[in-house]
Amino acid sequence: MEIVMSVAIGLLFMAAVYLMLSKSLIRIIIGTGLLSHGAHLLLLTMGGLGGTAPPVVADGVSVSDYADPLPQALILTAIVISFAVTSFFLVLAYRAYQELGTDNMELLRGTEDYE
Amino acid sequence: MSNLVLFPVVIPLIFAAILMLFPKKLHMQRAVAIAGVVATLASALVLFSKVNSDGVQAVTLGSWPAPFGISMVSDMFSVLLVLSSTIVTLFVLFYSIPTIGMKREQSFYYPAVLFLMTGVNGAFTTGDIFNLFVFIEVLLMASYALIVHGGEKPQLRESIKYLLVNIISSALFVSAVAYLYSVTGTLNMADLAVKIPQIEAVGILTVIAVLFLVVFGFKAAIFPLYFWLPGSYFAPPMAILALFGALLTKVGVYAIMRTYTLFFTMNTGFTHELLAIIAILTILAGCVGALAYFDVKKIIIYNIIIAVGVILFGISQMNAAGIEGSIFYLVHDMLIKAALFLLVGILTVIFGTSDLRKMGGLIKSYPIFGWTFLVAAFGLAGIPPLSGFPGKLLIVQGGFEGTHFWGSLVILATSLLVLLSVVRIFIYAFWGEPVKIVPIDRKHYLSMFVPTAILVALTVVLGVGAELFMPFISDAGEVLLNPSLYIDAVLKE
Fold first, then answer.
1. How do strand B57-60 and strand B71-74 relate by DSSP bridges?
2. Where does residue A57 rank: exposed (0-12), middle (13-18), buried (19+ CB within 10 A)?
3. Are B291 and B417 in contact (CB under 8 A)?
4. Sign of CA pseudo-dihedral B177, B182, B183, B188
5. What is the average pLDDT score of chain B?
6. Strand partners of residue B60
7. Quick one: which H or E segment has residue B92?
């Protein structure tokens, strides 16, 4: 299972890098979304996929059966943060498109006003 | 167990939340924001005296036993940084009132500054590596709001790049945390410091250490990851730039200092060697930038990068002199960078441009301002007895005591280049033929100049009274050199 997850994470990172290297702003934002998904999946995989029972004290469940709750708690935090940042980025991109009239990163280099 | 540790983090948070309720009431916004920072400063001072008398303070949230709950730890190093960042924020707030503009003040400028402070103080205080990520995100979120605040065209353009770089480094941060957790099974810094020496797979840990160096290097702007900094910091108004220059990169530097002294010490032959080389390259790259531009903002921005290199070189030596020097220089740099940015801000207001070639002859009309600038410039370059000198002296000494005497030589040589880069501003702006300046009334000028001058005076006190502050600095250095002090305070309460 870890191997499958690793391949999936690799694919997500690959797609993210490809998208972030493009010139269009909206593709870049989608790329950042995929990148954080990859990172979250990595967190889950690295925490260990073992464990068959929720980490709650119950009859007939020993400590060794518990799934590790920490990676899940970390991912929840990380997902909320990346959700907030992505929505901020979308608003910023829209506002920048309105003000600057372009979403092409090639035209947003911005070295013209200082030599 | 002392909840005092949390106050410098929670107080600005509460005040920021209160400020969001009445964005349009200008006087209330100013008064409450300043009250918030003053309250934070008071709590930081109390915490400082507590740490000074009783040693490292730690609290684990929710009364969980230490490695399971989230620990907040305040040792002398972190409390010194909390104190200096709060002082810087206070003076920048005083400077913002006349310069930032009514429209910005009424659109959540002060709450954003206080949220930034929450994140910065939290990042300095936390004792958990994932919590560090969360606090860095808090301060980044506030910095996104501040960098684009006002929505001018260059701001929008540059904040896109700033945001993108930080999202990528955050994703790397999460990945690095994932690797660290899978190898060690813990994220509490004190617990990490206990467990990492027991792990035999030094190779994997070295890779993780370098990955963390990359992550924090993005924030700290080390070579070659500083590429985003000059462009992004150029866009926002001067008060915000002063906050960023004084606080944001320092969080990255702090994180490198903490992790590289507390637990990534298993393979210092590789990791700290790498750190030393990167630090020297950072200094050189910063010097090239500082000398290349005729724009006053750019010159000071590149000086941020130079200072980051100097501080990290001291840490890479892992001896008492180097580490104490780094701590002193870090505190000095927060104050002096804020002061210089504010001074340069006044220059750009007076001349109406930030291009040095269009300035000149200001010494006749603003003599006191000129000499204050010269003092700050000398302080930055480290001319004794000003505040840059003791820190740099110790760092250079650390290099000679360690294995990197060549690094110390580079630092000594580049000090001259730093001096040249800032004195160039003095020569161009204050000497020569007077040019036409924007008339500003006396009261407006004083409201900008007084907070700046006090900040410069503080750096002079820090330099001249270095003997007075050295006991605190060596206290801070002692905890970094003996991780057991830190570990005991967190795990054995």
1. antiparallel
2. exposed
3. yes
4. positive
5. 93
6. B71
7. helix B76-99
Q: Which residues of A lie closer than 8 Å to B, measured between beta carbons?
A: 20, 25, 28, 32, 35-36, 38-40, 42-43, 45-48, 70-71, 74, 77-78, 81-82, 84-85, 88-89, 92-93, 95-96, 99-100, 105, 108, 110-111, 113-115
* Band (B433; pLDDT cuts 50, 70, 90): confident
Q: ipTM strictly over 0.90?
A: yes
Q: Residue B301: CA atoms inside 13 Å, Cβ hemisphere, count?
A: 25
Report CA Rg, chain A: 20
**pLDDT, position A106:** 84
Judging by beta carbons within 10 Å of its beta carbon (0-12, 13-18, 19+), is residue B260 exposed, middle or buried? Answer: buried
**Residue B45 confidence (pLDDT) above 90:** yes
What residues are paired with A69 via a beta bridge?
Answer: none
CB B350 within 8 A of CB B448: no
Quote the CA–CA distance of A69 and A54 in Å, as a whole number.
8
Task: Give the burial class of B332: count Cβ atoms within 10 A of its Cβ; 0-12 exposed, 13-18 middle, 19 or more buried.
Answer: buried
Low-confidence ranges of chain A (pLDDT < 70): 110-115
State which H helix or E strand residue B453 sits in.
helix B442-464
Q: Do A45 and B178 touch (CB under 8 A)?
A: yes
Q: What is the token pair recorded at B493?
A: 């309460």
β-pair partners for A104: A24
